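Quick start: read one record
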Amino acid sequence: MAKLKLSNTVTLAQLDQHRLPQATETFTPVAHRQVHELFQQAAGINSQAVKPVWFKQAPNGEVAMGCYDLTLPGLDTTESKAQVGWLNSWDKSVSARVFMAEEIRICSNGMVFAIKVVARKHTPEILNDLPGLIARALGDAERRFVGNRERIRIYKETTLTDASADHLLMEHWRRGVFGDRQLKAAHDEYRDPQHAAFKPRNVWSFHNAVTETLKRSIVFDAPHLTTVSNDLLDSFAGFDEAKLAFAGSN
C-alpha cells in the first residue's frame, strides 16, 4: 500500500469541501461522504450500529478515511474495542477499502494499523458493487470480533511460565515479528506492564506486550505481523479460529 497523507482530522461536512474529479471510461471516483453514507446503510442492513470516531483527509482531499466504533448486542467492549473503517481515494493511489481492528490507527510511516477486510478498485461498476461489499465486510468483521472475544477468554486462562514467555519472545523474533530492538521492548513491557490489568502472567498479557511494542514501532506491515503473532499465540493457547468460524456457520 502507498503511504497515506492523512494528516488532517476533519468533520463529516469537511469531507465534501473538495470538488470530485470527473469520471473516465475506466475510473469512477466516489465522494468520501457517499462512502460514509454507504457504511451507515450497510450497518443498518446488518442490524449493527456504527458511531463515527474520526475522519482524516489529505490536504487536497484526494484521500480520506473514516473510523467507527462498532456496537453489537452481546459484544463486550470494556477491555477490547471493536472498530471498523473505510479508506477512499480520488487519485488512484489506493482502492476503496474496509478495515477492522480493536483500534484502527494510522502509523507514523503512513501505514494503516488494521486488517483489510475487502478492497474494490474504482472501475465503472464500483457504485453498483460497493454497497454489497461493505455489508458483507461488516458482517465478516462482526464474526471476527465475536471470535476474538473467545480468543481473549482463552488467552486469559492460559498461564505463562517465565520459560514459556521467553520461548514465545524468541519465536516472535525468529518469525520476523520483532527486530532486536522490538524484542527487548516487548520483553520489558511483558515483565513490567504499563497497566495493572496485564500483571497476570498469561497469554493475554503477553499479547498486550506484543501489541504495545508494534504500536510504538515504525514497521512496514504491522497488521501482517499481528496476524503472525496471533498464529503463534493461538497455537500455544490451543485456540482454533477456523473451528470457531465453522461452528458459527452451522
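Residues 245-250 have pLDDT under 50 and may be disordered.
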